[in-house]
Each structure stands twice: as structure tokens, then as C-alpha cells.
Amino acid sequence: MKVIEKRFLVNTKAELDIKNITDKGQSIVSESGVQEGMALFFVSGSTAAITNIEYEDGLLHDISEALDRLFPKDAYYKHHEKWQDGNGHSHIRASFIGPSFTAPISGGRIDLGTWQQIILCDMDVKAREREVKVKIMGD
Q1: Cβ contacts of 7 within 8 Å, gap of 6 or more
Q2: Contacts of 52 (CB under 8 A, 6+ apart)
Q3: In order along the chain (139 residues), what is the average pLDDT of each group of 10 residues?
């Protein structure tokens, strides 16, 4: 069994910036030569997350609206007292979604559903350069 780790950078804008990283992930899986196995996508940082969705404008809007309802930017967050950085909602949103996504690899391809894409969600209050780690395990 092979274990391969690759990393790539994603530049993001402030607040909720959602990037489709599926093609980059597939490129890394293809280069690995792994035909059957698993690919783990992980983002470093406590104000970013990785998940999967149907990447289309309506749903991108809906995700933003849902996060605003669940974790409003203007709510009181104790975190603000510690750092005065105004990103308490960013941390909670990222925690809620989670920092990683795992998908099977079948026939050398990430085995996603027809409408599934892997996304990076950056929720911080300023632009960032995020590092995504991809760990591939298989044969």
C-alpha cells in the first residue's frame, strides 16, 4: 500500500469564500498512481473547513445564508474578548463544518456522486492563503 502526501495553496477572500478544489484534488490523485484507496483532504487553520456540495450559485448563496442564521457575525462571541479580532463566528462556523473530507478512490478517480464537488470554505474576516493537505492511501 502506498501513502502519499501532497499540499497545495488556495488564496481566499474575506468572510465566506468557497473554492471548488475538486479538480486540483483529482490531479493529485491521478499523479499518485493510486487506483483503489482513500483520499483525505485537510485544511490547516481554525477558521477554514472542507466539505462537499453541489457547487452552484444558488447553493453557494444558501450556505452563506444558513451560516448567517446559525452563527451571525454580529452576535456576542467570548472569543472577541481574548483577541479583539472579530472572528468568533468564523471559528464556530469552521468547527461546525470541520477541517477535513475523505473520499474513496476507485479506478484512479475520486469517487464522488454526479453533483458532488469538494470545497474549501474560508470563513475568516480577512483574506488568507490556505494550505490544503491531501493524504492518499491505497494501491
Answers
A1: 131, 132, 133, 134
A2: 101, 103, 112, 116, 117, 118, 119
A3: 97 96 98 98 97 97 96 93 91 98 98 97 97 98
C-alpha grid cell for residue 120? 474549501
Burial 78-104 (b: 16+ CB within 10 A, else e): ebeeeeeeebbbbbbbbeebebebebe
Provide the 10 A C-beta neighbour count for residue 35.
13
Give the type of residue at 90.
S
Residue 62 CA to residue 65 CA, distance in Å, equals 5
Q: Rounded to an integer, what distance in angstroms lies between the CA atom of residue 62 and that of residue 74?
A: 19
pTM metric for this prediction? 0.94
Strands (E), 13-80: 17-20, 36-43, 48-53
Domain 12-138 has CATH 1.10.260.40: no
